[in-house]
């Protein structure tokens, strides 16, 4: 494949950053129709669509390619002998505790090796309210989405299934797939505002209300640890809880799993991907979660 034209790449980057063909045309000193033409040519050559709507929201392919385009532009702007060219770029990322420990940190060395000039500052976010201690450049949010104050990239969906410790199962089981009113009623259900038991109940025609009493946890990892300590039965997100199952700390009570209505989203303020470090991190996380 022949290399894309620099004019097309600059037009794409300007429209993605400014979210306007007219503003991009003014910046590049060409006509709006020329901007549109260059982007269409680039999309045709690469066989991708960069934007998903008339308001210039980036498609998943657009987010990925924009990161590469900005890295290339930044590299071309680095003049040999200029010390500031490789100055560290600080990136503040707000992450939820269990996701960061189970999904992000085991993969993070790959990003750090690929981008040694990006200094990461990881901040703890409260998943229930999407709150961070201080302002972040990139945020991991949990819920149903979309989040109207941010641009978002769906990152990780999951399925849920009940789990408990082997000791708890021996003392209180068997639970026969945890699929009947009687089986569920005999268990101490661990609660969290992050996952509703009604998801499991509806899928199995269990005629019980959402539990209103019992131990409650605002962090999924803490709830998994509580279940491992034989405090009761937890509704586990299976991708997030993989290590508890692999180690034998928890066992599944059913071979069936149910799609959770909640997912993880990577979010940022409009215009944040103008910064190379933000675009690079978004692109890397998206690809890392696909592995």
UniProtKB/TrEMBL annotation:
Pfam families from the UniProt entry: HTH_1, LysR_substrate
Annotated HTH lysR-type domain residues: 4-49
GO biological process: DNA-templated transcription
Gene Ontology molecular function: DNA-binding transcription factor activity; sequence-specific DNA binding
Coiled-coil blocks: none
Family that this chain belongs to: Belongs to the LysR transcriptional regulatory family.
Protein name, entry field: LysR family transcriptional regulator
Species for this entry: Bordetella ansorpii
Gene name tied to this protein: gcvA_5
